[in-house]
Predict the 3D structure of the following.
Amino acid sequence: MAVVHFSTDQRQHTGVTEVVIDAANVRALVRQLSELYPSLNAHLVETSSTAVAIDGEIIPDPMLEELTATSEVHLVRPLAGG
Amino acid sequence: MSTTEAPASTGTNGNGASGYRWVGTRPVRHDGLDKVAGKARYAADLNLPGMLHGHILRSPHPHARIVSIDTTKAAAMPGVKAVITGADFPEAPPKGATRNLMCTVIARDKVLYSGHAVAAVAASTRREAKAAAEAIEVTYEQLPHVLNIADAMADGAPVIHDNLLTRGVDPRPTEPSNVAARTVYERGDVEQGFGEADIVIEREFSTQAVHQGYIEPHACVVDCDQEGKAVIWASSQGHFMVRSSTATVLGWDTSRIKVIPAEIGGGFGGKTTIYIEPVAALLSTKAGRPVKIVMSREDVFRATGPAPGSIIKMKVGARNDGTITTAKAWLAYENGAFQGIAAMLGCMCVVSAYTLDHLYVEGFDVVLNRPVNVAYRAPSAPAAAFAMDSVVDEIAARLGMDPIDLRLHNCPSQGDPTPYGPKWPMIGLRDCLEAIRDSDHYQTALPDGQGRGVATGFWFNIGEASSATVNLNENGTATVITGSPDIGGSRASMALMAAEELGLDVHLIQPVVGDTEVVGFTDVTEGSRATFATGMAVVEACRDLKTQLRKRAAKTWDCDVEEVEWVDGSAVHGPGEQEPLTLAAITGNAKRTGGPLGATASLNARGAGPAFSVQVADVSVDSETGRVTVERYTTAQDAGTAIHPSYVEGQMQGGVVQGIGWALNEEYIYSDDGNLENPGFLDYRIPVASDLPMIETVIVEVPNPSHPYGVRGVGEVGIVPPLPVLANAVADATGVRISDLPLSPPRVLDALTAAES
Amino acid sequence: MSRTHVTCEVNGDAVDFLTEDGESLLNALRDELGLIGAKEGCGTGDCGACSIIMNGRLQCSCLIFAPEAGGAAITTCEGLASADELHPLQQCFLEGAALQCGICTPGFLIAAKALLDENPDPTETEVRYALAGNLCRCTGYDKIVRSVLEAAVQIRTPA
């Protein structure tokens, strides 16, 4: 179980600001999101939002990251630093 | 000027108060002697037998189609062994990060900025290579160019990439433009927020592109053999990145390439990418000899870096009690010739130091005919902080509030939402604000005629992948091998963490930066991650070793391993029936107890802790010349635990002074025909010793719970506050607020003159 | 191409090398004599990474033609330490953490030596102006200035 929060532009594809998903990892979560919101995936690819923030930490290659019942998830773009 | 008797640092660390024996102490760095004796080997210091010198021909035009390249004359010149052009490299995909990298290394059908690499020569001497490169005949068809954000975004602007369709706009445009992407972050209802505010301030800001300004130009030596293998000696922020990027550009398998890290002469983000290694590799392959390429300073300015310039419009609303309720921001960042994420990062950072009920942040990444952006310490955050913290300062003045009290009143804490969505973990902004408020500097009355400014800065910090191998030697010493280049003392930090874990004297530990074939994959040193993430791998390997050491002692004593503890560098028998065995006693006997002792750890570091800094400066402004003099400067930064406080202070001081340069003097100046007019340190003036006072430091230590020693990462955030700090201080000194950087003498003088009339 | 034979004294040793007429002394030191301590940060005399002391004067070796060194006495960073002991400046730079990446360090040590040879008891301001021709991008100069002042004390009052 995880709470996924959507940004303003993602909301255009989901119609909601957040959704609760029962998924053990990010891959399963993304699969379910794609089924719920068919146009979301293309939007994420389009905006390079290939990273995920889980409980505040941005993870660049997140597909196999495990989720817990209280995970707060945001779909974001990966960072770079100096 | 502050007195030299002042302590180098105050704060909570540096005196062993933490309960650690080694972490928090200040040993001489292990690589220090080589560096003060002139023995340390940077990439340009290597010469191989039979080595050739490479020289790269660069475009004199900011935007042009390459009609033809004739290398006949060049190839026939004395000493020339190889000549290559873009046609010798694999074809680049039509778009994306791979194309951007490939086309930055060498231009294909078009040159996109003055200084863009076009062709290269390898010859027996530097001069022969240069002469031959200049003899290459390139026919260009010049195209109209754009050099700044306003021109690039204007209707009818010359379009740089005919397949660039703006992302983040719904529906997606069908016509190409120079706007690569639009980013939006939104919360609440800003119009409602402004309606509820007692004061609303709206301002427009601009900053100029600046260079990272590392003193060592990019350099490499590449030796390719007849079996297709390449050895690269290079100066970079990550040799595994050099390997993968070189392989990508050449279309090679990474296993053909071994990269040996040279010492790195400064990076600050600018060496998180490559420019010359694939060129040298191809020249070496063609010539069958090692090839060295060393960039000139002019080439460094024209073709590497920079950090982007920006235009930011801020509108902020607050109530009379000092509560900042609402912010609306419009940000546009230069991306250079290829699209990047500068504006996205700016959007994420711009209001991070404040809790807001209502925000609308919109950013635009804009391509133009300049070199492509590269990271520079906390990329995009300085310009964003300049805009927000300038406006916040004006709000404090209007409300008659102390600027630190105002910021404390609006300060986010753990669990509050970040502007970009997720909640804040444990952060130290409040601690930094209080540290500056309580500092000797802030508590000292401002001298007559001076102005004082304060501001905040935020940066994410990043985790990523790191590896470490720790070997225990038969005499009881340890070798710590990591894959992170040592830019500013990280070897010493790795050794300190290993010393703490193993209970071994730090001087008995030899920290080594291993090449791509002796240590596991390690990401580039960026995002202030080396001591955090690579340090985590070192600690994990050491903990593995401690388990092994306890097992060896148990074997020696013929007891259960659970009866053995590791205490201060020795195995101790819990029941007390045996004399403790030191680490040296165990390693000396290792062959008889199961063989040599070593451990490796590789990990994705999780839990990088966000960093904040708060700074204060006193300045004087010469009303006749417009020159701004920094009279006193203090910086407080949340470092998490300071592993080696001297190098933490060094990161803080260095970041501040780079920020001072950005605020007061540094800027790229382009001529109308698209050429950089100040590609040297004489005209691109970075701060020198006589420009500055001592930089007083307060290390704030809010330990990062995700790291075994609480490390947060210190490399970047220090550069963020100086831009607004100095703008606020100049406003305080003169009564004139300047919203365009740099605050160089002509600009300040113009502003003072305009205010008088 | 014709090459010039140059004879001079470097760090107390009599040396000679062949050089092309337009070559810089910096390149000759590095490529012909293998003294890599002096670095090229700019090649135009703006950064001081190539600092040497030639005939008692602080110079940017990138601005001197190699043949001009004929008969000169030159000190580079490699000549500061004795066989068994670092120069106090080197020791103070190490203990004061006055270097981060280290590329500018040889130049700073030479410039600081030139200062202390002339003025053994400089003020902070004098140190800052004496080092204003040397660029450091890592440290913000704080720890460099402190280390030079500390070395001056140690040189004036040997233990």
Summary: Residues 530-557 of chain B form the longest helix (28 residues).
